[in-house]
Amino acid sequence: MNATGTALIVGALGLDQTAVAQVLISQPLVGGVILGWSAGDPGSGLLAGAFFQFLCLTDLPVGASIPPDTALAGLIGVATFLSLGHPAGWGDQALLGLLAAGFLPVAIIARVFDVRVRRANRIWVHITEKLLERGRLRLAQTAANGGLLFFFLRAFIIALVVLNAVALWDGAGLSQAAGAAPAFALFARCVPLIGLAALLSQRRQAGWPLSLAAGIAAAILFSRSMA
Amino acid sequence: MRGTLGLRILLRSLLVQASWNFEGLQNLGFFFMTWPALARRHLTAPDLARAGLRHLRNFNTHPYLAGLVAATVIRSEESGGSDEAVEGLKRSLMCALGAVGDEFFWATLRPFAAVVALPAALAGAVWAPLLMLAVYNVPHFSVRMWSVGAGLGEGRAIVELLQRQPLSRALPALGAATAVLTGYLVGASAFDRSWGLLPGHGLVSVGVAVSVFLLLLGVQSRGLGQGRLLSCLSALAALAGVVRVVNAP
After folding, report:
1. B107 domain residue, yes or no
2. Which residue among A60, A102, B147, B203 sits deepest, i.e. has the most Cβ atoms within 10 Å of its Cβ?
3. B152 with B195, same domain?
4. Per-window interface: B 26-65 vs A, CB < 8 A
């Protein structure tokens, strides 16, 4: 699938983040598999989606606060991973580590655009008010949902710019820089632990060391039983 | 739920944040949710427009519980409550429900659903996302459906119902389960050939993973958040990568 097609899917999935239903299809684990399927490689979508999901365990839209949009950054990370394929000398982990380095800037840019969209959405308040005053009741209901267009365009445009930049770059230089791959692979192996530590540091409650130890013991017992 | 009206409020509540804006927050969504109830009151067009404008006042709550506020407001209006009383009820409900929903859904259930599905995802199970969706959305839609029905049925009595804090009771159990699954993921990643820091060394692998995890936990608990930690480590990886490329024969 080309960059525009993928960006359209990211735009549609991005609506779930704020504007529609919020059933979690915008989370990288779910959206990653959808993107993987559309690219004909659900396994890679799952791998990249799970990887970026570790970085989306915390940032929470509490009240009217707007955190960095880690979910959209994760979806764009998965789409970029799928579009880069398998450059020579770069394993999956190394490539994901490289993309994780660009994750935060994309999340922050997405947040900036999110704030702008929410500012721009006030135009729909004025349009709806005017339509109600003029007695155009049915049209007023349509205008009340006009923000869907802005929220869609936000995710679509960010994804389109990133994916076109990646398509233009075409991974040139990655094979020459293959020597850097082990460093990024090691970084990638730390990413799940970073995400899990962030989750526990935010959600610590009484007795957490015991719960944590129980989970680790369960993992050891499970791996022994599988062996 | 009161038949089609409840269903329409429920479906429209899915779009409560479609035009979230800094001026009125979820006000357009609230107007959209309550419109079917206003439309069936057989008001004259100017009165209907005035009622619509009244429902365009500021509104913000947790999106999953917005249907509850809308349904309660509709029920109170139909029971003959004054504008001021209904507005007061709306404001008190939206503030209380906002905090309850954020705590239960965003801060607790969403991470829980993710850590339930992640072990299966790391094992390569393509159905892992379905597990995440199911764990999250069964309670999510149950609460949405119950809340619209309760709002239409109970009206003001919903306040007493909510004082029993039905959602908050599940928080300790979900928090403990999340911590157990976090531990499981730390342990399981140690054995994983793709994700382990030192895989293939049995308990030594687990020791390394747990030590690194506790170090990261300590660093983050002292105020260096996930974003900064990620930036520092990715800069280190880039630096190490550049050094390796430059020094390559």
Report:
1. no
2. B147
3. no
4. 27-29, 31-32, 35, 39, 45-46, 48-49, 52-53, 56, 60, 63-64
